Amino acid sequence: MDLRRLLPETDPWSRQLVISQGTFLELLDMAAKQRGYRADITLFPEGEFDAKAPDGRPTARIHLVRDAAVQPDPLFAHIFRRHTHRGKYESRIPNVDARQAMADSVKGLPVKLGLVTADEPSMQQHRQIAMDAWRIEMQTARTLLESYKVLRVGPQEITQHRDGISINTPMVRGLVALGLFDRSKPSEPDSSAIKGQISDFNEKMALTPACVWLSTSDNTRTTQMGAGRAYVRLQLAATALGLRMHPLSQALQEYPEQAHNYKAVHQLLAGADSDATVQMWTRLGYAPEAGPAPRRGLQAHLDKA
User: Fold this and answer.
1) In terms of domains, do 149 and 286 share one?
2) Is residue 109 part of a domain?
């Protein structure tokens, strides 16, 4: 875990960052198989770190072993097409075959998969919780500032950092150029910028044809890793079918302002299982492929110590 890149406001327990490491391990495992290697993965070889704070102990050790018996994973073919799509989705609903393919993709992993579509009454509850949670994140100063710290506006910033949240729209670039967008201060909750963000999200959410989620029976660090492995497999299976996904992370985040939405989404998705944790919850629908987000590249991630 890169302790310089934690998100203490929106991901205070680093649960989502551990999930992201699980996605990495699953992709690494697929890549190894593609080259004829078996990836022997040991999770938390020096023990799991605390439930509320990561430390310098490794999250995994991987030993690559040449193995003629390993078989390539068909999902590998879709890795370079797997992108989060934050735009509008078509109204058509995933059919039975698509749902089965997604369910099959996570078999054997410690997760429970759920899916709801626009023709079901509970879909409106999904939409409302997601909208409420997004509004809170946009109107809470400290969580908004955390996003502003990694906001990259315009080609120069995007190329320089190649991480975070990239924005290249003329309006925002113009505001930055004129000194009218100060990212060191949170925007006022009733400002046109915040209202516009909320309105845009609400419109997309209102038209979303389906939501899919992954829950687990406990919330250990090892389980979070497994949820990450399941999530990337689910998204790859969706990608193969022309479906796009966009995580609805806000209501699952463990900071105080989201407590009401956190409880509501768990009651909706986990039901009577009070010990269950909803690890991932996303929009799901058909849309054209989205392009890749800027990323730093391999060398920037290697510890040369």
Assistant:
1) no
2) yes
Residue 4 lies in a domain: no
With a CB cutoff of 8 Å and minimum separation 6, the contacts of 66 are: 36, 37, 38
100 plus 148 within the same structural domain: no
- Give the predicted TM-score (pTM) of the model: 0.94
Whether residue 83 sits in one domain with residue 27: yes
Residues in the chain: 305
Encode the chain (305 residues) as per-residue pLDDT tens digits.
999 999 999 999 999 999 999 999 999 999 999 999 999 999 999 999 999 889 999 999 999 999 999 999 999 999 999 999 999 999 999 999 999 999 999 999 999 999 999 999 999 999 999 999 999 999 999 999 999 999 999 999 999 999 999 999 898 899 888 888 899 999 999 999 899 999 999 999 999 999 999 999 999 999 999 999 999 999 999 999 999 999 999 999 999 999 999 999 999 998 878 889 999 999 999 999 988 889 898 888 887 65
Q: Is 179 part of a structural domain of the chain?
A: yes
* Domain assignment of residue 145, given as a range: 129-204
Same domain for 70 and 88, yes or no, is yes
Report yes or no on 181 lying in a domain: yes
Count of the separate structural domains present in the chain: 2
